[in-house]
Amino acid sequence: MSALAGQIRKLHKRGIEVVLVSSGAIALGMGELKESKRPTELADLQARAAIGQAALMRLYSELFRKVSLKCAQVLLTWDDFDNRIRFQMRVIRLRLF
Fold first, then answer.
1. What does the alpha-carbon distance between residue 20 and residue 18 come to, in Å, rounded to a whole number?
2. Of the candidates 84, 83, 81, 64, which has an alpha carbon nearest to the alpha carbon of residue 72?
3. What pLDDT digit, counting tens, does each position of 56-95 carry?
4. Is 71 helix (H, G, I), strand (E, B) or coil?
5. Exposure string over 12-33, b if 16+ CB within 10 A, otherwise e
6. Is the entire prediction scored with pTM above 0.90?
7. Could you tell me if 54 and 37 are in contact, meaning their C-beta atoms sit under 8 angstroms apart?
8. Could you write out the DSSP letters of every residue in 6-52?
9. Are the C-beta atoms of 64 and 91 separated by less than 8 Å?
10. Cα distance between residue 54 and residue 48, in whole Å
């Protein structure tokens, strides 16, 4: 992941805008809780995802700070994908920072 942050930094220096989409929050949450078996109940999956998402953002923040970049999280719903204008407005607002 360090190499990925470095590659994104190089692209950023060239003026290329990058949006990184990642997954794995449930697996990371399971790792934080030292679990090997994936839960099946929705509430349990959501809890692992919440724990994992915090850990993932902490990791991204640390890696991007090392290459002098800021990162942010945009939470999307299925409605954001269905409504292209709404999706674009969320991305534009993020760029303002």
1. 6
2. 64
3. 999 999 999 999 998 888 777 777 777 777 767 766 665 5
4. coil
5. eeeeeeeeeeeeebbebbbeee
6. no
7. no
8. HHHHHHHHTT---------HHHHHHHHTT--SPP-SHHHHHHHHHHH
9. no
10. 10
